[in-house]
Amino acid sequence: MTANECIRNRRSIRKFTKEPVSHELLSRIVETASYAPSWKNTQITRYIAVEGEKKAAPAKCTDWSGNTKIMDSAPMVIAVTFIKGRCGYERDGSFSTPKGDHWQMYDAGAASEAFCLAAYEQGLGTVIMGLFDEKEASKLLEIPEERELAALIAIGYPDETPAAPGRKAVADLLSYQS
User: Fold this and answer.
1) How confident is the model over 117-153, as pLDDT tens digits?
2) Residue 131 Ramachandran class (φ > 0 left, ψ -120 to 50 alpha, else beta)
3) Domains held by the chain: number
4) What is the phi/psi pair of residue 84, to 5°?
5) Which CATH number covers residue 117?
6) 30 contacts: CB under 8 Å, gap ≥ 6
7) pTM over 0.90
8) Structural domain includes residue 56
9) Could you list the residue range(s) of the whole structural domain that residue 80 is in?
């Protein structure tokens, strides 16, 4: 599969089979995702695989009932976290750019997309979810104090094949300056 095929064909999956995701396969996906770019190669993104009875914890914290259904359907939910205070910072703790601490979330987003593409290449489906009570989810998932919860990703074997949603024309997305 080419990168072009992977990017164009991956879909957000919201219905999964009950087949579990093996820990070995998940490790390979995370290893691939570890090559996502990050600010000064800080590699701040960390993943917590939530399965079994513990998987009900993030489902309790969602702000949208659709996410509860997705997490109930998925055999595993990934809590995407990042180490606070490194990305976008200098060693003295000052910010490197006027973007402040925004680079942390940017890097977690880049790593999350790399994770989803790596999962798709392995035959798995994913959907990134952001509608949840971050404070409550962090408490229930026992996120360490030095980390922040960025997103939840449902992962599993797809039980649906959604069509590609419409895309904006390149002319709407791209402009040139000389």
Assistant:
1) 999 999 999 999 998 899 999 999 999 999 999 999 9
2) beta
3) 1
4) -75, 150
5) 3.40.109.10
6) 47, 115
7) yes
8) yes
9) 15-160
Q: Please tell me the distance from the alpha carbon of residue 55 to that of residue 48, in angstroms, as a whole number.
A: 11
Q: How far apart are alpha carbons 28 and 34 in whole angstroms?
A: 10
Nearest CA to 80 out of 129, 150, 131 is that of 150
Q: Is residue 3 part of a domain?
A: no
Indicate whether 2 belongs to any domain: no
Residues in the chain: 178
Running DSSP on this structure, what letter comes out for residue 23?
Answer: H
Residue 129: in which H helix or E strand, if any? strand 125-129
Give residue-wise pLDDT tens across range 58-95.
888 887 888 999 999 999 999 999 999 888 888 888 88
φ, ψ at 174 (rounded to 5°) = -125, 135
What one-character-per-residue DSSP string does 55-123 give? Answer: GHHHHHTBSSHHHHHHHHHSSEEEEEEEETT-TTB-TTS-BSSTTTTHHHHHHHHHHHHHHHHHHHHTT
**In-domain check, residue 87:** yes
